[in-house]
């Protein structure tokens, strides 16, 4: 067991937040977000202190028209020094495009569940592994780092639990191929804190040198608790989505990714250093309903920060005066 | 500092869940829930393993018409042995009615914030204390236990932070008067985990014999994390609301109380013994939208339990067959 961190007290510990709403979120939307709005939002997020932004995906424009402007987005955004602009790529063709467009990192996806991989990618896991290995070779030649996102690492909505050995086995194979980072993805919100803590501890013990990101969905209300359980096991890097954008096709109506501004709000209150500017994140999040054409899951956007105070009710002064008057000595004539 | 519990691993530890939706939730609704539906729901919850159910409030029927049937509800429900049926009472008149109706416990409310107490109850805190002290005396004579709920224990939406000394000071005065339990209420969802852990630890060190309940709202997405932080500091008793019913007038659109079925789902997965029958809770929660006439905040009700599996997409078999065929040796004629 990896030594336990007291996750309840941040004590200034640095955490790294990575925005996925601009890819994972926008990809789910039925409307096309205008390219200039995507660019403006990413530029705003670049100023907000995020460690990484998944700016877009280099996928077939026929398959995912929402992200058909990948090249333009990556070319036109203002690259903030210190921020990693990563892009999802599904195959060699996407990798060529992303490298050509100067992505800072390629993010590859495979599912740890055979059923989910076939349903999502139309390939067996071994076929995905073979194809992605070629992408990793290509990226290494171009000196572009590669992160591999392991879907369903905390359970598959069709198969059920995925054994930890299977998850860590796929991590090992990709790290051996030259991947520099692994993301354990809770694709449909099946993760729970004790499971998270155990898997993160196992991962860190087995791969102490590998970059590790945790990607949670708030589908069953456990998002923040899973983040804290990861921290307890030594993790410090988390995907999150502005406004909580990003759905889950297997749980209609339920929340998507953990919400960037909610996670930052909670972690900062607990004394963590997230590097993020929360008011800027809230300003950016406030633009989302207008961009996507619907309400977003973020509760913080509705409720405000905990110390955003409210005025007392209009009649407060008279209620108070009447209450105080009851404590005065009664006059003889009353 | 009270010794720290590892909250991440339940290890069979017994927790006690207390339902408040039938009072705190129903009171907020604009429709009148028919008395027979209230009774049927409470009877269903009595079978679901909850430790306590706040069945109703003995308040002025003019002020809160939603609960004007308090006497009938308390008389007609089936009293499950072992379940405590508690009732909110605001004053001596309410206490008389509740005692006459054989409430198992009286729950009294005062705010730790002067502004909130005046806004909510039209009295200063000292005036509330004097009035509630008389209720406690009356209840002790009738041998009915009294719990005192301290509102805004983790912050007031109008004043801001309420110092821990003030909160614990009010707890001390009520315990000296003979209250048997104290609930620390996060009335508008301002609590955060490190604060919760510290206040719960202080409370338990100062009042080791007092019954302690934590009452959280999920207004800013920290509900479950706050429950776990409480457990880390030794608490074992929590209010929650079926379906997440119960709003917060200062945060329109934001979630209400932490959701009973979500909390039970998460805590059971972590290995805690909640005493609750989750499928029964979900059945009861599924009736709520019909009763209150709108969707309820519960995400678990929409998404289902984590291992409620889904069938693969309709075309799955052909996708799999095509994927597998790619691995077959090519025939000479192909």
Automatic annotation (TrEMBL), chains A, B:
Database matches in PROSITE patterns: PYR_CT
UniProt xrefs under CDD domains: DRE_TIM_HMGL
A single GO molecular function term of this UniProt record: metal ion binding
Organism superkingdom: Bacteria
Domain Pyruvate carboxyltransferase residues, every copy: 15-282
Pfam family membership, one: HMGL-like
InterPro entries attached to this UniProt entry: Aldolase_TIM (IPR013785), HMGL (IPR043594), PYR_CT (IPR000891)
Enzyme Commission number, as recorded: 4.1.3.4
Keyword field: Lyase, Metal-binding
GO biological process: ketone body biosynthetic process; L-leucine catabolic process
Family to which this protein belongs: Belongs to the HMG-CoA lyase family.
Protein name per Swiss-Prot or TrEMBL: Hydroxymethylglutaryl-CoA lyase
Origin organism lineage: Bacteria, Pseudomonadati, Pseudomonadota, Betaproteobacteria, Burkholderiales
């Amino acid at each position: 067991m990896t030594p336990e961190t007291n996750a309840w007290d941040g004590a200034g510990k640095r955490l790294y937040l990575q925005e996925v709403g601009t890819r994972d979120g926008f990809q789910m939307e039925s409307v096309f977000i205008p390219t200039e709005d995507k660019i403006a939002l990413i530029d705003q997020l670049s100023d907000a202190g995020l460690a990484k932004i998944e700016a877009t995906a280099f996928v077939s424009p026929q398959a995912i028209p929402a992200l058909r402007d990948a090249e333009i987005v990556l070319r036109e955004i203002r690259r903030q020094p210190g921020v990693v602009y990563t892009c999802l790529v599904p195959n060699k063709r996407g990798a060529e495009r992303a490298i050509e467009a100067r992505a800072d990192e390629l993010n590859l996806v495979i599912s740890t569940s055979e059923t989910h991989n076939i349903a999502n990618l139309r390939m067996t896991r071994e076929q995905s592994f073979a194809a992605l290995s070629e992408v990793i070779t290509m990226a290494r030649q171009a000196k572009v780092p590669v992160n591999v996102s392991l879907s369903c690492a905390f359970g598959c909505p069709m198969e059920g639990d995925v054994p930890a050995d299977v998850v860590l086995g796929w991590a090992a194979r990709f790290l051996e191929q030259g991947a520099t980072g692994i993301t354990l993805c809770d694709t449909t919100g099946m993760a729970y804190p004790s499971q998270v803590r155990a898997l993160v501890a196992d991962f860190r013990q087995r791969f102490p040198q590998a970059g590790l990101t945790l990607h949670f969905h708030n589908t069953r209300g456990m998002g923040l608790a899973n983040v804290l359980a990861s921290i307890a096991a030594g993790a410090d890097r988390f995907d999150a989505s502005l406004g909580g954008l990003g759905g889950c096709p297997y749980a209609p109506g339920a929340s998507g990714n953990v919400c960037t501004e909610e996670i930052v709000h909670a972690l900062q209150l607990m004394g963590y250093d997230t590097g993020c500017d929360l008011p800027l994140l809230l300003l950016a999040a406030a633009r989302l309903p207008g961009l996507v054409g619907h309400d977003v899951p973020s509760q913080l956007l509705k409720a405000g920060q905990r110390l955003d105070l409210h005025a007392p009710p209009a009649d407060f002064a008279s209620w108070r005066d009447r209450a105080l008057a009851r404590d005065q000595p009664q006059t003889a004539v009353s």
